[in-house]
Amino acid sequence: MAKTLVIVESPAKAKTIEKYLGKDYQVESSIGHIRDLPNSASEVPEQFKQKPWASLGIDVEHDFKPLYVVPSEKKKHVAKLKALVKEAREVVLATDDDREGESIAWHLFQELKPKVPVKRMVFHEITPEAIRNAIQHPRQIDENLVHAQEARRVLDRLYGYEVSPVLWRKVAPKLSAGRVQSVATRLLVERERERMRFRSAEFWSLEGLFRTLKEEGFTAALIEVGGVRLATGKDFDALTGELKPDAKVVLLKQADAEQLLQRLKAAQFTVISTEERPFTQKPYAPFITSSLQQEGSRKLGFNAQRTMRTAQRLYENGYITYMRTDSTTLSKEAMEAARKQVRQMYGDEYLHPTPRTYDKKAKNAQEAHEAIRPAGSRFRTPQEVRGELSDDEFKLYDLIWKRTVASQMADARGRRMQVRLQGLDAIFSASGKTIDFPGFLRAYVEGSDDPEAALEDREVILPPMQKGDSVRVKDMRTREHHTQPPARYTEASLVQALEAAGIGRPSTYASIISTIQDRGYVFKRGTALIPTWTAFATQALLENHFSRLVDYNFTARMEEDLDEIAGGRKEHVPYLQDFYFGDEGLKSQIQTQMDQIDPRAISLIPVPALVGSEIEVRLGKFGAYMKKGEVSATLPNDIAPDELTLQQAEELLSKGGDEGILGQDPVTGQDVVAKAGRYGPYVQMGEKTASLFPTDSLSAMTLERAMQLLTIPRLVGTLDGEEVWAMNGRYGPYLKKGKDNRTLPGHESLFTVTVEQAQALFAAPKSRMGQSAAPLKIFEYPDRTPIQVKVGRFGPYLTDGENNAYLRNGEDAHSLTAEKTRELMAERGKPPKARAGKATKKAAPSKTSKTSKTSGKAPAKAASKAAPKTVAKPAGETQKAEWKDLKSHLNVLSDTERQLIVALREENKKAEDVAPELGLEVKKAKGMMLQISKKLQEAWRKAVSA
DNA sequence: CAGTGAGCGAGCTTCCGCTTGACTT
């Protein structure tokens, strides 16, 4: 008899549920989402590749219809599910009861296309009772909730895939922007900016060791002198380091404190007030993902990833409930188990009289799961499972067990005491705390490893005193204080901040931190997260030009809209339409900002410590550097932005910066200088210059290396009566023999190439990439032309003379088989790009020619398959841009270049006149013009082909 | 703004949120 197929999200969950449901049911898992938007062009099916929206994976012109694909690593699993569906009596989609879960259910339905009845069931705890109850009360898929998820997905894709390219063009390639990561980075950058602006203040205080008449000791601190309160940290302005103007306080400098000490240490002190207030403290809520990560960090020293990896293993092996949750709720069985254990281990007195429940505290919590707790209806104690677990697992289980049990324990009760003493015109204060009944603190103290020790720490016991008692000064000393800048975020506190703002989800907290580290926005020092200069430049761009997108409330507002969509009160397509195509929409924003953003301005990073010093910090192609006039110096990678002081900057620059004298030639005594030139970094000695190799950097340049570089050009020997020179040119290393030349395989071979090797190179015909280069391999087929595997400029590729196909990263040219090669060719083979003005005649009017319907006279070459991305506007017969075309790309130029070209082209001035105005020699200005022309042409060509 | 021998198969990078395995040494 056919079974009912139940599909959940997680395999571990499937196993458990199958036990509860019995033999009429088969339980399988989807293993998360089964379909998604294509990640990159390689995942886009062939028929959509030509669409203008192919890279987005969303047909923005037609109701933002998403293109969903089953990612290749999921195909096998989906096929397996399909097969199971065919044999099933009915299908129950039991994915999580939240937005993403509803979406997974819908995708399963769409993709598996069941012909048998389909139901949707949900549950919030995995107990036999809850599961049986859930399966008896099925419902249908909630389309509105699915739409809300789709809107979320599409919005995130549009944001990420439209804004990231702006960063590539204006800041650096491979950077990224996104609704979550950009705000996470912003938090870090803003905090660092606060630290950079922070001015520390120094203040002093007094601390006294006192004795009662019964010779019982205690300490008290000065709080008031002459009727005025003593200044504390919060009385200072963080930006100036001065007292806030309205602060009515006494500020003690060191001398004041010492003077006061002399005056007070012999004074007579009397108790002027005593106060005692009872207090109670409630236990913390059971763990959710974010609090588990925080406590994992504070108590165990685990980072977010380690905590989650460990929790995952505990979950899979049945020790704890699901670890990605935002709900603090305990199921009934968990509640009972916890309470029973409290009674057994600590006694009735320690049990809270009624079951405790905790309010949800996370913004946008979806509460599809329980809190994180020991699994089952009877909790196994840490001691019981000790032998079965690894060290990490045991520590984390112990933590979870304690927190869960503590959550049902009684309040802690105690008293807080405060005593004030007066001597002359000074008032001292002492506080104490006594815990009368520890309650839950016996099991769990937040942030501490050992509850018993922490309990003792918490008690500061004051001897009994009464108003009017005299006390004696045993000792008194001055104490120095400095105000501290706001602390840097740690993984744990960043997660906490994101969660408080409703940004990110339990399943993503750990990966958010990885992402911003991978992109080079953040690095870690100990547990502190430090934003990089790249993060500063990126944030400046986003804040100045896309402020709405990095607003801390952006996600919260989105969530409100998604709730409206989920509730059926709002439609998702108009919502996206407005976000993308609206007057203030993303698309128009990007179009206008792409022109307005000045990369030079963005690369300049304001540093408060350097204001007025003529030193500027910029983000360049190879990282951050400082510049003062003509001198520049690379900023070390491990220096935090708030640590860069004027003194340190001057020091780095005074070493000559990157452009400095490295030393003298031991033979001639001539200076050897490192410089940054128009064509990149180089070293110079007298008249002789040599470019650095790509592996060198100015900041790491030494005299020895410079001397070695200066041996190039090197006379290799003589061949056929002509000298052979090893040279480093515009296109890289090469050999020169008279008018003949050959490219060398690598820069280092400039030093090592021998006459024999040179002879071999010149004996072979001039290497022309892709034409005469020897193939690595040739595969022959009975039914098609042979395919060659070659190595070119960009790495290995395949060619059969007509079509070429590239290999992806990870595809090894040497291990290709004939069959694999044929497949790759069929899949990716394309005719080589026709060169400008040399269009092939055989380009048949293909489907792509339809795109040029707007221009009736479009030449065949523009529509040829070789240049499928040609825009409707023909680029002109000669492919040459006019000034008006080039003008919009002025942002690729430096300030001087821009001023020069504008003066010449717009104001019709002569180079001879403009050069002096810009402080240039006429010859240099003319040289610059060549560069300018090249840069503009290149930018224009890129824009046209994009 | 050092000073230099050509001609050439590129495509891709990126988002957020669900969830686990995995080429072999």
From TrEMBL:
Protein name, entry field: DNA topoisomerase 1
E.C. code: 5.6.2.1
Gene behind the chain: topA
Bias kind Basic residues: ranges: 831-841
First-level EC class: isomerase
Region called Disordered, residue ranges: 824-880
Record key words, sorted: DNA-binding, Isomerase, Magnesium, Metal-binding, Topoisomerase
Coiled coil start-end: none
Species classification: Bacteria, Thermotogati, Deinococcota, Deinococci, Deinococcales
PROSITE patterns in the cross-refs: TOPO_IA_1 (PS00396), TOPO_IA_2 (PS52039), TOPRIM (PS50880)
Active-site residues annotated for this sequence: Y322
Domain Toprim, residue spans: 3-127
Subunit: Monomer.
